[in-house]
Amino acid sequence: MPPPSDIVKVAIEWPGANAQLIEMDQKRPLSSIIREVCDGWSLSGSEQFALRYADGPQLYITEQSRGDIKNGTILRLAISPTRAARQLLERIQSHGIDARLEALKELAKLSADPTFAAEFINMEGIGTLARLVESGTHFGEMLAFTLTAFLELMDHGIVSWDLISLSFIKQIAGYVNQPMVDVSILQRSLAILESMVLNSHSLYHRVAQEITVGQLIGHLQVSNQEIQTYAIALINALFLKAPEDRRQEEYTNPLEQHLTEMASSLAQKHLRSIILNHVIRGNRPIKAEMAHQLYVLQVLTFNLLEERMMTKMDPNDQAQRDIIFELRRIAFDGENDPTGTEKRKAMYTKDYKMLGFTNHVNPAMDFTQTPPGMLALDNMLYLAKVHQDTYIRIVLENSSREDKHECPFGRCAIELTRMLCEILQVGELPNEGCNDYHPMFFTHDRAWEEFFCVCIQLLNKTWKEMRATAEDFNKVMQVVREQITRALAMKPSSIDQLKTKLRGLNYSEILRLRQSERMSQDDFQSPPIIELRERIQPEILELIKQQRLNRLCEGSCFRKLGNRRRQEKFWFCRLSLNHKVLHYGDLDESPQGEVPFELLSDKIPVSDIKSVVTGKDCPHMKEKSALKQNKEVLELAFSVLYDPDETLNFVAPNKYEQ
Fold this sequence. Notes:
By secondary structure, this protein is α+β, with helices and mostly antiparallel strands. The chain is 52% helix and 10% strand. It contains 28 helices and eleven strands. The strands form three sheets. The chain has a four-stranded mixed sheet. It has a four-stranded antiparallel sheet with strand order 5-6-7-8. Helix 2 runs antiparallel to helix 3 (97-110). The chain is globular. It starts with 6 loop residues before the first strand and ends in a 7-residue tail after the last strand. One of its GO terms (cellular component) is cytoplasm.
């Protein structure tokens, strides 16, 4: 007799009949078990049947997936995926509209099943769906179900997106470009275009030729946040896949240009203001997926700075040297330079020292280290041109101080630029699941440069408050980093609000915060506290254990990662009240409050759990692609390993709920 671990007790349903309660031997072939079940209901042709889950996504059970069946699972006898695929393929091509609609509705649901999908695709099902779309004869619900099925089938990765025809792309783009189109059709069309761009280099070029920024802007002005999210997701996808030269090009009319010219578009006031006013400052709270897309857009926009950040200055390039000459002219000569060329050159060394460059003779050498490279010089020139009074005040104020207390503007600007690149992670790919966008960066066309201008004034002010000398340079930069990161954590809604937050974080306040944090740590190190801690430690540990168990019994909701279409999908996990079983299952939406055990279809006996691993040791982190495998997700990942060789994989919502 097989050991108990190979036997699972399940119920199997069949319409119009009493359920069969059987002990399923996991060592027996599925075909043998299905034959026995069919015999119990006097059904012939057992090879035409299969088992599916009765609850949740109702997936087909295969030899590969049968190990997921748990005791108490309810299954359903159904027609086999091959038979189902053949029947649906015939029905969606029938002449009866009602029959075709019902078939497409069922197909849209079944297409999420990988077993059914493989059978349907083998029968050239995707080509049939594509032709139905290309014909332009489907509308409303029928078209929505067709697009849903198509997207679900393609998402299995069985068929290459490169096989999609140009006429299909034009038809899908046509739905996006139509002024009045059904919301469900528009949503799926945007999702299909996003998947095309992310999964095919050749389709990226075709989609970019069909869709313009002006056409997508209309979808950002609607009240449906889900449509807004899909529209921004498509912008992000095109931006992410755009060739480097295309990202940096300048074009005159941003509303008519194609999305291959993403850098110019995102820098334009119209698109930015639409996102600011209709999305960020809209009347609806920002959902997690929208927050993620805004974060991705922010990251990709800042990544346009990477080229300049990694470009060294060429000391022999006269055009680049002229920028340094311009910095000197604005600071010391005003609009008119009364001195002759020879006399002016003789003054350069002195002036460059007053400007705070490390190399007084040839300051171009200060910009040969990357990062921040030429980006630092760009920031300095912006300050000098746009905020000229502030620039002149900072330079002249420091040049009139005693040598030991002067704040070297050039050196500070270069180091500050490097610091800001680190804080905002310029050049790094977006983190999957991260929602950390900053509203203030959407409030100004030159948000990066304005951010630098605010921070360089902060640095100058903090230098004075610390009465720093050249030897204190690194200490000042550490304080400034702390001031900036603390202010950003408050999520200021505008550049002006950032200034207000920073004013409240002067050097005295930073010292006070540090002292307060240090005191709270020091208090716990005094002898009476140590003695008390040792005395109550057993009780405290028991309370912690109980609190953690209570939290596990309440359960947590986790977001499913890796969905290319960026739809919200969730699952929930909680510990049974007797602490013996982990219950988990998929949810259609994020729950409000506790999820009953009855809604969680899967479970794991705690006695089967072998260990818990975190970070890069997790199986789902080892499988991640280069794009998704990043530090943040690694820090949030953990897995439960249980017998025989199964895993339950998690990514915590944040570091505090792990």
